[in-house]
Amino acid sequence: MSNMNDSRYTQATVLLRQRLGCSVSVDGRDLFEKSFDGMKIAFKADAVVRPQEESEVGILLQLANQHRVPVTTRGVGSTLTGSAAPRYGGWVLDLSGLSEFEIDPLTNFCHAQAGAITGEIQNAADAQGRFYPPDPSSLKWCTIGGNIACNAGGLRCVKYGVTRDYIVALEGYLPTGEHVKFGRDLKKFSSGYNLRDLWIGSEGMLGVVTRATLKLLPAPRSRQTFLAAFTSERAVLESVQELLVGGEVQPSILEFLDRLSVKGAEGGIGRSLFPEAPASPLLLVETDGHPAQVVEDTLTIEKWLGRTAITFLKSNSAKEAEELWEVRRQCSGAMFQLANSKLNQDVVVPICREADLVDFIDTVREKTGLPIAVFGHAGDGNLHVNVMYDRSSRETRVVAANAVKMVMEKVVALGGSISGEHGIGLAKTAYTDLEFGNAEFAAMKAIKKTLDPRNILNPGKLFEKFEPWRHDPVEVQLPWDHTRPLG
Ligand SMILES: Cc1cc2nc3c(=O)[nH]c(=O)nc-3n(C[C@H](O)[C@H](O)[C@H](O)COP(=O)(O)OP(=O)(O)OC[C@H]3O[C@@H](n4cnc5c(N)ncnc54)[C@H](O)[C@@H]3O)c2cc1C
After folding, report:
1. Thinking of the domain 222-334, which architecture would CATH place it in?
2. Domain topology for 112-218
3. Of 111, 185, 242, 392, which is most buried by a Cβ count within 10 Å?
4. Whose CA is nearest to atom 5 of ligand 1?
């Protein structure tokens, strides 16, 4: 565990305990558990603070600003980028206890505290025939505050968009401790600058969200799932383009799995879903909405897959749909059959260049000799590139880092972005120069300096270079690691 500031904040922490009492913990186990996130690279904090009231966040930030103590806000730490790890020590502000929410049936808004769990909001909306669409795969654990800070996406983005598309208003505190509300709990408003959207995706560097107003939709009443096998990765991705260009159907899911992902997932399930075409690249397709619309979409999808796929399966029940989904659910965890570690890049390219990226990854595999599995959201160009490597070998770590660099250079050359939904954190700082020019960096830094003049909120992220492959991860099992096959 790295800590550059061992007892520099002790005095400020004493003052914090005087103000916030039992909300502040310096217990060794607490400090360890909040020293890392899903990236598993640890930095020791000086205190973990769990506010009982939203107003305590303002008190903490005022003190932190006064004494220049770094503050790292945290939901449940499921980010894979290191953005919730306390890079320079100081105080970890754990908001997972502020988890209340309620649905207003008249406006169809959900008023949620930052620590509310995304999946619980979805379940509560569903119980009322309503729908909160953003669906990161981590939704059972992650918080709405974390989703907002990362502008989280998910499988349904192709039809429904990302977290940003469902945020009406945000309430919280500036890094100086002043209370603000960006946006209003109204169906429309057009007053002042849109600072709400500046907070969304800013990875906890520009303010702390304590409360959000979310937009809900009526729940789709029907859905239909398909799984199709193709001759090649390019055939899958060109077929996706054909469907989208046709414009007749707006699918809610278009998930791509390359051969290596399918091989791993089929190993996990213990059977092949298409024995006549084992380990072929796959596409998972779903359409949802009014039952009559889903019937019409189904006919179009059947014709399209009949033309472009080798073969396909269609679900006739919720149970069958779940069976088709299993291959997609398994593939992330099943990767660990290939090697003990992965560098997971959530890159995004224009939809028309996805096949070019996947072809290029073949070249990277050949040059590095590493298994690289690709799966993800083909309908919005957001592909997860999983470079698998053995972290016990320093040599292999460097080869893996080079593989990622090659991929990132290609992504940007294709007109893409180095992150589609996870953000930069520490993990991707090595590649930000590829995407942002001097003027863009300068504009971002100027905003940071205006809102956070003492650089106390989540310092060390986005702007400073960090090379994760040079750090030993902590050996811990996190709740979401359970799908990882042992051995
Ligand atoms: C198994 C797994 C699957 C995943 N699948 C997806 C996916 O499909 N799509 C996707 O987008 N991501 C995915 N993720 C990444 C991660 O779950 C998301 O980024 C999620 O939004 C993080 O939420 P969290 O509550 O864990 O936030 P944390 O990890 O605790 O924090 C993430 C960032 O948000 C900041 N932050 C947290 N709360 C606040 C707040 N209240 N105010 C200001 N800043 C705050 C933190 O400082 C940090 O920078 C996945 C992760 C895992 C482990």
Report:
1. 2-Layer Sandwich (3.30)
2. 3.30.465
3. 111
4. 137
